[in-house]
Specification:
The protein is 7% helix and 35% strand. The chain is mainly β. The protein folds into 3 domains: 2-73, no CATH class; 95-116 and 198-330, no CATH class; 125-193 and 334-364, no CATH class. The radius of gyration is 22 Å and the shape is globular.
């Protein structure tokens, strides 16, 4: 078995590794399926070198197929991800396009719960293990262990993000969000801040929006070749009737063909409705204007009454959030893999904090 040192990777638009590389070696680049075949046949062994010594690449069964990891990362880390990305990755969308289509988010004049940076939400939350029957556990960073209590001591807040992010999907693809139809049977977790986080009333340039661009291969693509998804976060959803909950991820998706905006999907109550470009505000050019309903934060293409019985109210009187002033790639967020609930556990799924955007992103 010959050793093959790995110094670079190739990645797709999602940041997933597609090939291993070493520019000084004739075998480079080697696609993931080829590497898997090499390892399983015993033909070659792939190594990643670091200050801690060589670590061997292994094949792991995951929710969407087989992929590569390193022995060091049995629980958290993968030093394949730490390697530089080699040349040859073609961007799905230019940054100029991403900025050009970035939404103008129109908040309601009576809004009380504004956008916020999810890192602020993380820092101000306890990290909880849901077991029910008054037996939920909290993680204390001082002792680095779970304890069955409801303590608000400072050691239960501002838990290291890397630890929270290590609670990704289960090996069978199920998530860790309590009350979710697709949650696993063991160790479901949630973030719980105090009360109702109010966010930032003037978010432009101060609250980030997270971008996920993807080549479009869906049957319902509207003839597009690229979609660009923009995700934003509210600390509290003051929705209609009894559907209030901590944490609220919302999004708009630009549908693009040959660099031209065809239309956009706007998210409302877990569903996304497509609006043709002609239905969006024409005087804004390529900018998507998302009118956000008071409290529920559902997004629509115009001001007025929307949803069942007109419960969602939008208007043009509140602050306008220019998302183009603070855009960040979703795939690079240190919390992206977290598969628990962004908010406390309610009686129902609708009153429990939502799953994060990486697990709900456009993925065709």
């Amino acid at each position: 078995m010959a050793d093959r040192p790995v110094t670079q990777t190739l990645k797709n638009a999602d940041g997933d590794i597609t090939a291993l590389c070493n520019p000084d070696e004739s075998w480079s680049p080697r696609s993931v399926p080829e590497v898997i075949a090499d390892i399983e046949s015993g033909a070659h062994r792939y190594l990643v070198r670091s200050d801690l010594g060589d670590t061997r690449v292994q094949v792991v069964d995951g929710p969407s197929g087989r992929y590569l990891r390193t022995y060091r990362d049995q629980k958290v880390f993968n030093n394949l991800d730490e390697l530089p990305v080699g040349a040859g990755v073609i961007p799905v969308a230019s940054w100029d396009e991403i900025v050009r289509f970035a939404p103008l988010v129109q908040l309601h004049s009576g809004e009380e719960y504004f956008p916020m940076d999810p890192m602020e939400f993380l820092r101000s939350s306890r990290f909880r293990h849901h077991r029910g029957l008054q037996s939920d556990q909290g993680y204390t960073k001082a002792a680095q262990e779970w304890r069955t209590n409801n303590s608000h001591h400072r050691n239960y807040y501002d838990i290291p993000v890397a630890f929270i992010d290590s609670f990704g999907v289960h090996s069978d693809g199920q998530n860790r969000r309590p009350r979710d139809d697709n949650s696993g049977d063991d160790f479901n977790v949630f973030l719980q801040p105090r009360g109702e986080p109010s966010g930032d009333r003037f978010p432009t340039g101060r609250v980030p929006v997270f971008v996920h661009a993807k080549q479009d291969t869906c049957a319902s693509s509207k003839g597009a070749d690229v979609v660009i998804q923009y995700w934003w976060f509210f600390g509290y959803n003051d929705g209609p009737s009894a559907q209030n909950h901590q944490g609220d991820w919302e999004h708009a998706t630009a549908v693009v063909k040959n660099g031209t905006l065809i239309g956009a999907y706007l998210a409302a109550h877990g569903r996304a409705k497509f609006y043709d470009r002609s239905e969006l505000e024409p005087e804004r050019g390529d900018r998507i204007v998302a009118y956000v309903a008071k409290g529920s934060h559902a997004a629509y293409a115009s001001a007025g009454s929307h949803g069942t019985l007109g419960v969602d109210q939008t208007d043009g009187g509140g602050p306008q959030w220019d998302s183009s002033q603070y855009l960040l790639p979703l795939r690079d967020r240190p919390w992206k893999a977290f598969a628990g609930a962004w908010g406390e556990v309610g009686v129902f799924a609708d009153t429990t904090g939502p799953l994060g955007p990486w697990h709900k992103r456009y993925n065709c």
